[in-house]
Amino acid sequence: MLRYAGFVVGHRRDQVGYEGQLDTTREVISMIQHVLGIGDRARGFTRETRLLGAIPEMDSMAVASLLTSMEERYGFEIADDEIDGTAFATVGSLVDFVDAKRGQ
């Protein structure tokens, strides 16, 4: 595990996309922190941090707000049939979803 800007990230430097993963992870955590209004609680989030069912603030309205924030931040559109609960299982699954959408 590596530490970067206070976050623990499970990637090695020699992996393709390492720097991009770090940036996306940091941005997604920041979005979660802002949308959910959880302040410093997000400081210890990692890719393994569970979201749906683990964070009380992560309800259907928060999911909708996060989707809107991602669309605005990254300039892509998310169709209803592209998203399900697995994307919001962990911080890492959400980061992977964003990276996949950005790569299209």
Compact overview of the structure:
The chain has 104 residues and is mainly alpha-helical. 44% of the residues lie in helices and 6% in strands.
Give an overview in words.
The protein is mostly helical and 104 residues long. It has one domain: ACP-like (Non-ribosomal Peptide Synthetase Peptidyl Carrier Protein, Chain A, Orthogonal Bundle), CATH 1.10.1200.10. Helices cover 44% and strands 6% of the residues. It contains 3 helices and 2 strands, in the order ββααα. The chain has helices at residues 18-36, 60-74, 91-102, and strands at 2-4, 7-9. The chain has a two-stranded antiparallel sheet with strand order 1-2. A hairpin with a 2-residue loop joins strand 1 and strand 2. The longest helix has 19 residues, at 18-36.
